[in-house]
Structure formats: C-alpha cells, structure tokens
C-alpha cells in the first residue's frame, strides 16, 4: 500500500452533481388536515451526491480533485459550489447555466425510516453553449490530469456530444477516461479506457442475460468491441469484479459484512481511477477496488474509505504482507485513534524478541486475548545492545519486526529507539498493558497511561538466552 499512500494523483471528475439533503426527526401523530404523518424535524444535514460522492471518495483516498459540470444560477448551485470548496476541490470548471435547477434531493427521515423524498432539479440535456464551455475549460489543462472520470447519473450533463468531445480530447493527450455509465446505450462512451457497469446495467446495455461464465465473457467482449474499450469490466456485487483485457479474469469480493451498498459504485470507480493513476496494473487495481468496496459496504449510507482503512481491512483478511503491519509512531497514532473511535479495545506489550520462540508466540497469543487489537513495541538494535550486552541482538530490528508482524496474534509492530517504551505507551494510552510475569511486584513503565495492567507468565525453559546457549553448545 505504500505506493498508494505516497501517490497524490490529480483527477478530474465530470458529471451530474447534486446535493443530498436530509431532514431528521420524530413522528408521534397524524395530521388533522390529511392522513399523513407529522414529522417534528430536529436537524438538517447535507452531503455531496451524484458525482459529488465520487469526489468525496477520491479526496478520502488522498487525490487532488478538480470538478467540471453544470449548475444553475440558484441558491442550490451556490451551496453546492461552497461544499466543494470546503473540501479543497478546484471548481473553476463548473459552468453556470441560467434557468437550470441545480439538483437537490431532500429526504425526510423519521425514526430511522425514510418516509418521503422530494427533488428539485433539471433533467434536460444541457445547452450546446454549456457543452462548448466545458470542453474549452478542460482543453486548457488536460495534460495536468492523471485520469478523468465521467460520472453519469442521467441528469442531462453527459450528453453524447460532451462525452465524445472529452474522450477525444483526453485520448489525444494520453489521459485515461473512466466511466460510470447510465442507461441502455453506452455508445456515447465509445473510446473510453474502461466502463464500470454493474451486472444489471451490463445486461441492459448488451441485451444479454448474464448467468454463467460464458455469458459473462460474451457480455464483456461485446462491451469491449462496441464501445472500443481498452479494458472491459463489469462489477458483480457480492461476486466481485470481472475484467477482460486479453483474457477473462474474475476477482472475488472480500466483503466480510454488508450493511449498505449505497454509493459502492462511486467507491469502485474512484478507487480504480486512484490505483491506475498511481501506476498499478489492472489486476492490482481490481483487487484494490474490491478491498475498498469491502470496507464501504460495511458502513451505513453513502460512505468513503481511506488507504489506512483499506490496509487495515486487508490485514484483517490475512491477505497483507508482514511489512504492512510495521508502523511508525505517527502512523500508529492515527490508527489507534481510529480504533478507539470504533470502540475497539487496544492492547500493548513490548520487548526485544531477538530469537522468536514458542514462549514468545504463546505470550503474544495470550496478550491478544485481552482485547481487539495487539500492538507490539520493539526495541531497536541499539537499545537491545544497551539492555542485553554488545553481542545482542542476534537478529537485526528489521528481521525481528517482520517475523513478529507475520504472527496472527500481532496486529501492528512499532520499533522504538529508547530503552523503554514510555513515550510510545503515553501516545497510545492502551486499554490493556501486558508484561511478563517476572514483573510481579515491580514498577512497570507506562502503567499510568493504561487502564489495566496484565501480567503473563512465560513458558518455562523457553528464552532467547537459553536458545543462544544451546546453539553455542553450552547446554545439551
């Protein structure tokens, strides 16, 4: 994930922008004026919807984002522009079309149940002059972008003329165009790098029923040919993602729990654009998008996902490499805060772990049983030498950290330079601090920062010192 964390791709999103507006309240009576519920509104919230949710996902991943599209000369348009500015999105390519209504969808929620939705919007195709203004605005800095996303919600912005103009412009400048399509006619997206239809949309567009491997391949090939795509892709909900570049490949889903699929398609196209822009190939990109979708469907409502969340999720599936579990002070601080927000119980222990043996493993397994997340502080080579003598450590810190991180019981390893992990414990403030049974009656560093101290007895006869002595032939 390191290359993805360091990447800061510059991505342009063009599509149907809207505001999702929520009125939250309670309902305790029926109106005397008509047989309808009376909702006592307690609060109102607004979030970016439509193509705006793609933007939110890109920002959460760490991308630099610009937006192009059309809004009306109305209060909703100004509100939408301000919402984009608040998350540092470049809005210079937003075109105002007089008389057009900026999309705003209002939902009335009572006792966690949506009882009404009302929309204010224009759904007619945008005017030709607006198309020309968008193309002119994109033409200026097209080479600055690593990718361009067309997010179509069928509200009239992505006309065939605009889509074909943008795709031709992007292709001429080596910029990949990714499309989240809408409707039954995908011909207006011809020449794009890839589309991200779901199974239902792909069936609608191709006129084929996708019910086995053969029909899936046929649908992918049809889309690839008819739309002149570099990569043909279909999202398959709980069955993951299927792609066809030179051959059919399927990437199974990795979702553990599904609470809400709202906005999952926006997360998929955002994560695909992000990974491709960071230099990942299509196979790695599909796997990354699956992980992102796996995180977001475990949340309620239209949600976003961060690289750290994806990394943690991958680790929970035991699909990550050991080095993904080795963290710096700064990284572990952010991770711990996120876990605490989620109500997770954080456990901390530390040591040299010079030559890993069964005693270490059993000790760490017991430590993990005290909570949800186990963080292991690891003494640096210099601190081990100061504590154990000039002949130690036998194994360098990098190797010791990697082996610890490979253990199922260990969630994260954090190397530290000091003789004690005082500063690390102070920063983490664990729910449970774990030390060896030999600390009975002794002062344990960092206890004041932990809610609870647990002492765990070591396995008799198992220690690094005894292992070294045996190797040296001093014991039988």
The CATH architecture assignment of the largest domain turns out to be: 3-Layer(aba) Sandwich
Report the helical percentage.
25-40%
Biggest sheet layout: 6 strands, parallel
What order do the strands of the largest sheet run in, or round the barrel if closed? Answer: 5-4-1-8-9-10
Question: Structural class, judged by helices and strands?
Answer: alpha/beta
What does this structure look like?
The chain folds into two domains: 2-320, UDP-N-acetylmuramoyl-L-alanine:D-glutamate ligase, CATH 3.40.1190.20; 324-471, HUPs (Rossmann fold), CATH 3.40.50. 36% of the residues lie in helices and 25% in strands. It contains 16 helices and 18 strands. Helix 2 (51-61) crosses helix 8, helix 4 (128-141) runs parallel beside helix 5 (160-172) and helix 6 (199-206) packs across helix 7. The chain is an alpha/beta fold and 476 residues long. A six-stranded parallel sheet has the order 5-4-1-8-9-10, sandwiched between helices. Strands 16-15-14-17-18 form a five-stranded parallel sheet, sandwiched between helices. The protein has a four-stranded mixed sheet with strand order 3-2-6-7.
């Amino acid at each position: 994930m390191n290359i993805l964390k360091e990447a800061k791709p510059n991505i342009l999103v063009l599509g149907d922008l809207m505001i999702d507006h929520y009125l939250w309240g309670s309902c305790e009576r029926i109106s005397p004026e008509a047989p309808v519920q009376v909702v006592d509104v307690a609060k109102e919230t607004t979030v970016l919807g439509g193509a705006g949710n793609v933007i939110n996902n890109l920002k959460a991943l760490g991308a630099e984002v610009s937006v192009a599209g059309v809004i009306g000369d109305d209060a909703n348009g100004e509100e939408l522009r301000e919402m984009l500015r608040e998350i540092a999105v470049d809005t210079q390519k937003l075109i105002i079309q007089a008389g057009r209504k900026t999309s705003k969808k209002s939902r009335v929620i009572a006792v966690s149940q949506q009882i009404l939705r009302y929309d204010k919007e224009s759904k007619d195709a945008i005017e030709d002059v607006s198309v020309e203004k968008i193309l002119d605005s994109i033409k200026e800095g097209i080479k600055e972008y690593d990718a361009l996303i067309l997010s179509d919600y069928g509200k009239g912005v992505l006309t065939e003329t605009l889509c074909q103009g943008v795709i031709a412009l992007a292709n001429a400048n080596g910029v990949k165009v990714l499309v989240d399509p809408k409707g039954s006619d995908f011909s207006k997206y011809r020449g794009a790098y890839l589309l991200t239809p779901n199974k239902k949309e792909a069936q609608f567009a191709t006129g084929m029923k996708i019910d086995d491997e053969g029909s899936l391949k046929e649908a992918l090939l049809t889309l690839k040919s008819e739309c002149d795509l570099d990569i043909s892709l279909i999202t398959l909900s709980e069955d993951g993602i299927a792609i066809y570049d030179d051959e059919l490949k399927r990437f199974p889903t990795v979702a553990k729990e599904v609470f809400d699929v709202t906005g999952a398609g926006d997360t998929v196209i955002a994560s695909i654009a992000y990974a491709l822009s960071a230099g990942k190939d299509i196979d790695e990109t599909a796997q990354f998008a699956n992980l992102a979708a796996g995180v977001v469907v475990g949340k309620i409502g239209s949600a976003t996902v961060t690289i750290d969340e994806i990394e943690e999720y991958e680790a929970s599936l035991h699909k990550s490499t050991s080095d993904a579990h080795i963290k710096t002070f700064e990284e572990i601080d952010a991770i711990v805060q996120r876990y605490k927000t989620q109500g997770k119980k954080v456990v901390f222990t530390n040591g040299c772990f010079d030559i890993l043996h069964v005693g270490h493993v059993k000790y760490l397994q017991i430590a993990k049983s005290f909570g949800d997340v186990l963080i292991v502080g690891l003494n640096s080579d210099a601190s081990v030498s100061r504590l154990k003598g000039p002949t130690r450590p036998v194994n360098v810190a990098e190797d010791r950290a990697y082996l610890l991180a490979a253990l199922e019981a260990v969630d994260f390893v954090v190397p530290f330079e000091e003789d004690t992990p005082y500063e690390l414990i102070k920063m983490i403030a664990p729910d449970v601090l774990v030390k060896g049974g030999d600390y009975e009656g002794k002062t344990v560093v960092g206890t004041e920062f932990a809610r609870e101290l647990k002492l765990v007895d070591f396995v008799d006869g198992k220690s690094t010192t005894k292992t070294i002595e045996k190797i040296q032939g001093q014991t039988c």
